[in-house]
Design goal:
Four copies of one chain form a homotetramer. By secondary structure, chain A is mainly α. Chain A has helices at about 1-10, 15-30, 40-45, 50-75, 80-90, 95-100, 105. In chain A, α2 packs antiparallel against α4 (about 50-75).
Amino acid sequence: MMSQFVAERDWGRFHDPKSVAMAVGVEAAELMEPFRWLSTEESAALLNDARRRSAVAEELADVVLLCLEFSAVSKIDIAEAVRAKLELNKKRYPVEKSHGKSTKYTEL
Amino acid sequence: MMSQFVAERDWGRFHDPKSVAMAVGVEAAELMEPFRWLSTEESAALLNDARRRSAVAEELADVVLLCLEFSAVSKIDIAEAVRAKLELNKKRYPVEKSHGKSTKYTEL
Amino acid sequence: MMSQFVAERDWGRFHDPKSVAMAVGVEAAELMEPFRWLSTEESAALLNDARRRSAVAEELADVVLLCLEFSAVSKIDIAEAVRAKLELNKKRYPVEKSHGKSTKYTEL
Amino acid sequence: MMSQFVAERDWGRFHDPKSVAMAVGVEAAELMEPFRWLSTEESAALLNDARRRSAVAEELADVVLLCLEFSAVSKIDIAEAVRAKLELNKKRYPVEKSHGKSTKYTEL
């Protein structure tokens, strides 16, 4: 559906991997934006407000849509990549070593 | 699968919406990283190198995995959000007005 | 000093505004990276560790160095831009309306 | 000046290192935003438009202002950090090895 959306608008010409990766980064920052000055507790509470929840859902969708477009442009099978990375993470962060540690990704 | 991965490691305690959104941003930047100094042409060529292609696929997967985790934490239905946003974008960027324009998202 | 560093390596050819802006974004994410899974309190404590403090200082420096390079490439006077924006922010966020509000930038 | 601006508004209570780093990331993405769909040539041309140039200058200033705030919050001497990192980069990327190479940071 995303590929068709892009094709109908002839936007593929702008969608080289560099530009689409940059667009993923821009959308990810828009997802961060409403949370940056909030405490942990406030960041959960924000999602109870219907209008704000809807805005956050749109930003999340934008990140995913651009990831799907990156997948189309790069011909990387996104479902396969996700499955493979999760398997890799299971090995990289064994339960017995990483249980309950916030240092996880950076420290192990 | 991602939720189970997180639960087994008891990482949910660190996964408030603010932190997960921040992690999406960090992973998005890792997807951008190999492309930043490349020309449009070089950014496409990089993906022909098997080792680099595989590294880029891992970064793309990381963004999606964190988006899935954000979905789980926020209880936002990610598939529904993506479908709804694409429908919205179709209205916001009608084919006749946005065809072939790189100014698209910012200018219309 | 940054301009000389770039010129000596003939890196100016890669430093169009788009690429340098992207590099600022990559470095900003590296500044975020050590904090993403930490609580507010832990994020302050991390800076008491000498090795980690030094790593964070390097990431902060990278963001600033790329901002200086963006300034050189775009011929935007960075000191003037900073002064002007701070004046604008003073008007945009008057003390009486914005005192003690975390909603500041997004809500006013 | 930035510290005074923050103190007058009693915003220091929201400015833990994690949140300020996140805000640097958000502002860096706003600097990227106007360039993401442009070619290298267009990204330089955009800066010739007075209104857009002024908007870009504001985003650049925002990144620097938040870096200054991060420096204040973390008590990292930003000028010293920048000087030290540039010296480190000179050693890390010797002219004879890095001259004219776009692979620079990632590959050496």
